[in-house]
What does this fold into?
Amino acid sequence: MTNRTVLAHEFRSILHDRWQVGLLLLFALLSIYAVFQGSRYREALRETATAFETEHLANAAAWREQMVAIETGETRPEDDPWAGLAMNVAMPAVLFPGPLADFSQGVTDVHPFTARVALWRSVDRLFGNYQFQSPGETRAGPVDPGYVIVFLMPLLMIALSFGALAGDRDSGRLGLVLSYPISVREFVASKLVVRLGAVLLIAAASLIVGLFLGAGGLPDGQRLGRFALWSLAAVGYFAFWAGAIGWIVSLNRRGETTAMTMVGLWVLISLVSPAILAAAAQLTYPAPSQLAFLSLARQVSSEAHREQSSVMEGMLLEHPELSVDNYTLPEYIRESYLVTQTVDRRVEPVLEEFDLVQAQRRAFLGLVQYAAPAALALRAMNEIAGTDLERQVRFEREVRDYKSRIARAVEANVLAGERMSVAEMSRIPQWSFPEPGLGATARAVLAPVGALFLFGFGFAGRAAGRLARLETRLRETS
Amino acid sequence: MTWVIARTELLQYWRDGRVLTVLAIVLLLSAAATVTGWNAVSTMERERAAAVGMDREIWNNQGDKNPHTAAHFSRYAFQPTFDLAIFDPGLTNHVGNAIWLEAHYRDPAALRPVEDAVEIQRIAEMSPVWVLQVFAPLLAIVLLFGAVAGERESGTLRQLMASGLRPAAFLMGKAASALVLLAALVLVVMAGSLILVRSDAISPLPDAFFRSSGLVALYIAYVAIFVFLALGVSALSSRSRTALLALAGLWIVTTVLGPRLGADVAGAISPAPSAPEFASRVEKESSDPFWGSADEAVARRQKVMDDLLAEYGVETTAELPINYDGYLLQASEEYANDVFDSLYDELWGGHERQRDITRVFAAISPRIAVQNISMALAGTDLFAYRHFADSAEQFRRRFVLLLNEEMIVHGGADGYAYVSGNDFWEQNPDFEYVPPGIREIVPNLRADAGIVLAWLGLAFSVAAVAVRRGLVGETAA
It folds into this structure.
C-alpha cells in the first residue's frame, strides 16, 4: 500500500460513508447559506448608506440653490431671511460597509454608520437615533462566512478525522499498518489530507462564490486583495486546527477519548477562551459610564443655557470683531451655537477617555488573544473585512472632528449673524473617511495570521515526532 | 434497585477523573460568570442611581425657561437592571438603558452596553445561564454516553440482565444519578447568583421567589432532556464511541448552531428596518402631516384652531382665555402619539415575529425555548424591555402634557415668551417604573413551556423505548 493507494482508499471510504457525505453536504449548504446571507447584509448596508448620503447631499444642494438665488437676485434677501443661515449647515457623514463586510459582519450591526453633522447637535447626539435593530438578532449574531470558518469548519474537521488512527487502533488493525510500505506518519497524514482536504475544498469553493456574489459580478482589485488576505487568515485557522487534530490523533487514544479531547479543545478554543478574554479585557479596562457621560452633557447644556449671558460675554471677549450691532436674526440661534460648542468642549475629555479605554483594551487583547485562536482568527478577519471595532471607533471620532471643522469654517458667520455666500459654502469641508490600504492591513494582521500558521505547524511537528516514536514502539513490540 | 444503581453510578462518577475534571471546569466557569454578571449588574445599577439623581437635579435647577422649551430638553427614563439579570442577562446588553423623553418625538432606548463591548464578546457572553445552557448538556453527555453502550461493550449489561434487573429500574437508576449531579449544579449556580444579589443593593423583581423557583425547575427539565437523550442514544448505539459522536453532534446542533441559525433565518424572513430609514420615518410621519406646508397639514392646523374657537365661542385666538400656541403644540403631540403607536407597534411586532420564527427552530434546539422562558422569568426578554419602553412612553406623554398645560393655562398672550421657574420644575413628577408581575408574563410562556415539555416527553420516550429494546435484545442474545 502506497501513499496514493491510502489516498484513493480514503477518498472511496468517505464517498461510501453516508454520515460523512451527509456532514460534508450540510457544511456545503451552510457555507452557501452564509455567503448568500453575508452578501445580502452588505448590500442592504450599502443601499442604506447610499440613500442616506444622497438624501442629505440633495438637501445641502437645495440649501446652496437658495443662496445662489439670493446672489443672482432671483430671490430678494428679505423674502428668504433663512437662506444661507450658517447655523443650518448640515452635511452627511457615512461609513460605507467594509470591502468584505459580507464575509464577516463584525460589529457593524450595533454601531451607527451614518451621521447628520449639524451645528444644532452637540457631539453626544451626532448619530441621532439608530438603536432600532432587533436585540434578539444582534444577541444571537450572524451566520456569515466568518462564523462558518471559525466555528463550524473545525467541528467538521473533528467529525471527519478523529478516527484517522483510532479507527485502526480500536479495531486492532494498527499492527497491520506496519506491513505497509509507508510509515505510520505518512499513513496518518494521507488520511488527514483526504478528510481535511474535503473540508477545505468546500470552504474555498463557497468563499469564491461569495467573492463574486458580494461584488455583484467581477470583483475589483481592492476586494480581490482583501479576499486574498481574508482567505489567508481562514487557511491559517484551518492550519491551526489541522495541526491540533494531527497532534491529538498522534496521542493514539481510543476513539471516544480522541473525539472527546477534540471536542473539548473546540469548546475551549471557540467558546471558553474568547468569553474569558472578553470578560478579562472589560474588567481590567472598564469603560467610563455612558450614563455619567450623558448626565454631564445635559448638565453642561443646561448650565450654558441658564448662563447664556456669561457664555456670550466670554465669546465676545475672545472674538471682539464679532460684536456686531446689526444682529437681525433671532438671538437663540447664536446662543444655541455657543451652547453646543460649550457642550462639545466640556465632554471632549470624557470622549477621549472612551477612546483611550478602547485603545487599552485593544492593546491588551492584542497580547492575550494568542491564548484564544478563535478570537485571533475572528479579529484578523474582521480587520481585513473592514468591520472591526477599531474602524468603528475611528469613524465616530472622525465624525466629531468633522463637526468641529465645519464649525470652524462657519463660526464667524454664525456669531455675526451673517448670511453665508456661495463662495463660503464651497469652503465647507467635505466628508471623507481614510481607510487603511491593503499593505497596512496586511502588516496589522501579519502577526495573528502568522501565529495561526505557527501554532498549526508546531502541533504538526509534534504530531510527526509522536507518530515516529509510535512506529518505533510498535515495531519493537511486534 | 433504582437507588442502588443510582448510588453505584454516583460512586463511579466520583472515581472517574474525566467527570470530575469536566464538573470542576463547569463550576469554575459558572463562578467566574456569576462574579462577572454581578459586577456588570451592580455597576449598571450604581450608574443608574447616580444618573437618576443627576437628572432630577438638572431638571430642578434649569432656571427660568418656557415650559415647551423645557419639554424639548426634557428628562430621561433609565432602565433598571434587576437581580435576576445576574443569572440571565438575556437581552440586557443589546437594548439601550436610557430613553430620552423629549417633546414631539419617541426616541428608542439608547446607550446599549454591547456598543462598549470588545468585539470578541460577540462570540460568547459569559453568564451563569450560558454555562447551564451550553455546558450542563455537555456534562450530561460525558456522564451518560457510555451508560448503556459502555456496559454492553464491557459485557456487564448481560450480567445485569441475568440478575433480573428490569429495564425501567435500569433507566431510572442511570437517569437519577446524572440528574442528581446536574440538579445540584443548577442549584449551586442559581444560589451563587442569589447570594451575590443579597450582598448588593440591586432591586429585586416582583415575585422573585416564583421566578427563581421557575428558573430552577426549568433548568432541571432542560438537563433532564439531555439526560434522557443521552441514555436513549447510548442504548441505540452498538458502541460507546458511536454514542459519543452522535451525542456530540446533537449537542452542537441543539446548543450551538440551532439558536444562531434560527435567529439568522428569522432575520432573513422578517428583516428589521434599517435604522436611518426608520428614524427618518418616525420623524417625518409624526411631524410633517401636522407642521408641514402641505395642504393637508395646513388644513389640520386650521381645524384645530376652528374647533377651539368654536368651543370658546370667539372669533380670534387673541380672544381665547388660554394660550393658543401651547394648545396647538399639545394637539401636535396627540397627532404624533398615534403615529408613534403605529410605527413602534410595527417595529416591536417585527422583533416579536423574529422571535416567533426562531421558535420554530426549537424543533431542533430545545435551548431556544429554554432561553425564551429563562429570559422572561429573569425579566430580560423582549416583553420586559417593551414593557419598560411603553411605560416610559406613557410617562413622556403625561409629562409633555403637563408642561404644555402649564403654557396653555398660564402662558396667556406671552406664548413662547412665558417662562416657568425652578418652583415649577421641582413639583414635576419622576418616572417610577413598575416591572410586570409573574401573572403578566405567564401567558407569554405557554408556547415555550409546551415545547420544553414536548422535548422532555420525547426524550423520555426515546430513552424508555431504546433502553427496553436494548436490554431485551441483550437478554435474548
